[in-house]
Amino acid sequence: MAITIRETDKHKKMLSELKSLTVKATASGSLIEGGYIAIKYHDLYKKELIKSKQLANQLNVLERKIDNYLNSLESLRS
């Protein structure tokens, strides 16, 4: 498979950093590897987003329980 990359001078810094990140010698190799890395981290992001929402819901449930407890305690004291 051949990949043609045009106007690489506009993206020199990005390509250099991508080569360093992926430890690939060629721009096309680093771009392909970078694509796989992007997919991997996007999947991790989606999983963490779901986990974060679940934890936020759990926190809301616990906060309501505490509020109910404190309101009941205050009612007993009155």
Write out key terms for the chains shown.
single chain, mainly alpha, 2 helices, 78 residues
Work out the radius of gyration: 25 Å
Backbone shape: rod-shaped
Mean pLDDT across the residues is 94
**E-strand count:** 0
Class based on secondary structure composition and strand pairing: mainly alpha
The total count of helices amounts to 2
Query: In whole angstroms, how far apart are the ends?
Result: 79 Å
- What about the largest sheet? none
Structural overview:
The chain has 2 helices and no strands. It starts with 11 loop residues before the first helix and ends with a helix. With 78 residues, the protein is an all-alpha fold. It has helices spanning 12-22, 27-77. The mean pLDDT is 94. It is 79% helix and 0% strand. Helix 1 (12-22) packs across helix 2.
